[in-house]
């Protein structure tokens, strides 16, 4: 029987097991809040299938079974903590706690020249972990990442009022870097009250508001600027630019208490919901259904930040909050109906790996990149987007009861490896770089230069 979208959840009920695996998640533990249940199930499948990699090493906190994962591994930590906050539990707390790395260790894991946006995701997640759980190491690393990006990546010539370059090549200024570090800096100022951070945040603010980053007619956020004339480059594709800026405006509102920034965040949110879903309200990335491994994460990052806006709205603005909740619920129902694979046995779903079989038994439910469906294949990037969506849609006041609220399986610690350990998948050249004694696996078809860079 084919269920209509609206009665889908009633029609299938909530399974206590998925495929042939008994889930450590039940509907009861969240007092029948189904969005929290699906977040739990999606997170369990994410961890069972892709964490840690059979070749876990590289000082990275996790490697997703060969999937391009450095920035994504930073970005996925934030919904882990958000899930704890929104559903009041401590599941996978060890993964969160063990993710702490110093600036040096991160540079070593993704040397020799990580782009500033890639490092920014760790900054945002670490600041969020500190905000929720405390832990000075997390806050220190987040501050170090922010200051390192400022020292290494900010345009000190002051052309276009500065701005962060994309990477060491200094030939592009992408919006994502600037909105990430805007959000991070404002949050760090709120958490640490260090006025030198606030001065930098105000310069980033000036850069953003003087370079046509937001189109004030459509409220869409542009992907980057022309560096020679300081104007919008006209590319309005990726949804995470607006998403991360919404989160940045929420933080800046908390610092300044100026309602203008919250109103602007609402306008940007509504512009994205309208243009990215054509009234159906099912969010669609500009590149769906053929997004690359970066873009498969974007919609999740947008809804994550939409939730931060919902959390910051004044309590009398229930109309706005309800309309965003409805949008999230619509997308939840859509991906359950159109975009999920949950067969018995789960091995019948097309779940993909690059470094061989996972450490744990394969589990579901798994989701593919396009929230409009149909299901095509499971991989960790799109699973994280689905997880972000479920987490962001959990109703306020949800709590967890029972032993499963502290479910926290152990994982083997990652090993420091070298190219001598032959860690790279078939067809990918191993590339050692200095000044760190570490390596990276080049993409298929790339070669390693003497400087330790894949080209
Ligand atoms: C759960 O909620 C209680 C009551 O608000 C709070 O004291 C506790 O810290 C919360 N636990 C988690 C893990 O969020
Ligand atoms: C800025 O320069 C780009 C090319 O570098 C050009 O296409 C664009 O029209 C210019 N914009 C303005 C506002 O001058
Ligand atoms: C919305 O509709 C327009 C016009 O048909 C189309 O070009 C665009 O790709 C659609 N966008 C989405 C997100 O489906
Ligand atoms: C909420 O309350 C504030 C302060 O009293 C008021 O300025 C604002 O217009 C109210 N907003 C709504 C949506 O009612
Ligand atoms: C994997 O599944 C097999 C067969 O169902 C079971 O015996 C085994 O304990 C499971 N392994 C883990 C790590 O859960
Ligand atoms: C499984 O997904 C991969 C990655 O998209 C694809 O190349 C492959 O054709 C799919 N296999 C099946 C049986 O659909």
From TrEMBL:
Residues 1-19 form the signal peptide. Keywords: Signal. It holds the Pfam family Glyco_hydro_76. InterPro entries: 6-hairpin_glycosidase_sf, Glyco_hydro_76, MUG_Protein. GO terms for biological process: carbohydrate metabolic process. This is Mannan endo-1,6-alpha-mannosidase. It comes from Mizuhopecten yessoensis.
């Amino acid at each position: 029987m084919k269920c209509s979208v609206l009665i889908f959840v009633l029609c299938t009920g909530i399974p206590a097991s998925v495929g042939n695996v008994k889930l450590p998640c039940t509907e009861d533990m969240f007092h029948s809040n189904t969005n929290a249940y699906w977040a739990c199930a999606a997170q369990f499948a994410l961890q069972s299938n892709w964490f840690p990699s059979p070749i876990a090493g590289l000082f990275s906190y996790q490697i997703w079974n060969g999937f391009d994962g450095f920035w994504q591994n930073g970005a996925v930590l934030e919904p882990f903590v958000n899930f704890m906050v929104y559903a009041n539990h401590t599941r996978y707390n060890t993964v969160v706690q063990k993710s702490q790395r110093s600036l040096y260790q991160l540079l070593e894991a993704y040397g020799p020249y990580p782009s500033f946006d890639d490092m920014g995701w760790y900054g945002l997640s670490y600041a969020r972990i500190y905000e929720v759980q405390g832990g000075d190491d997390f806050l220190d690393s987040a501050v170090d990442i922010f200051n390192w990006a400022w020292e290494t990546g900010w345009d000190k010539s002051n052309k276009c009022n500065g701005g962060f370059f994309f990477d060491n090549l200094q030939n592009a200024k992408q919006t994502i870097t600037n909105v990430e570090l805007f959000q991070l800096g404002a949050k760090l100022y709120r958490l640490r009250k260090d006025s030198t951070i606030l001065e930098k945040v105000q310069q980033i603010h000036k850069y953003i508001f003087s370079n046509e980053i937001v189109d004030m007619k459509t409220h869409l956020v542009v992907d980057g600027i022309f560096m020679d004339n300081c104007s919008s480059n006209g590319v309005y594709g990726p949804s995470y630019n607006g998403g991360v800026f919404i989160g940045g405006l929420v933080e800046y509102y908390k610092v300044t208490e100026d309602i203008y920034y919250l109103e602007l965040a609402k306008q940007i949110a509504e512009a994205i919901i309208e243009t990215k879903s054509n009234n159906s309200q099912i969010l669609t990335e500009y590149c769906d259904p053929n997004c690359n491994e970066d873009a498969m994460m974007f919609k999740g990052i947008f809804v994550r930040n939409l939730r931060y806006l919902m959390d910051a709205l004044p309590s009398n603005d229930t109309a706005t909050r309800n309309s965003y909740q409805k949008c999230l619920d619509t997308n939840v129902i859509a991906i359950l109906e159109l975009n999920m694979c949950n067969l018995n046995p789960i091995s019948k779903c097309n779940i993909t790996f690059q470094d061989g079989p996972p450490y744990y038994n394969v589990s579901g439910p798994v989701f593919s990149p396009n929230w409009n469906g149909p299901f095509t294949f499971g991989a960790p990037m799109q699973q994280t987007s689905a997880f972000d969506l479920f987490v962001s849609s959990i109703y306020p006041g949800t709590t967890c009861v029972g032993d499963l609220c502290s479910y926290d399986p152990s994982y083997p610690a990652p090993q420091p490896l070298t190219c001598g350990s032959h860690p790279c998948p078939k067809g990918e050249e191993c590339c050692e770089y200095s000044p760190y004694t570490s390596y990276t696996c080049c993409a298929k078809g790339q070669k390693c230069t003497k400087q330790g860079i894949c080209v």
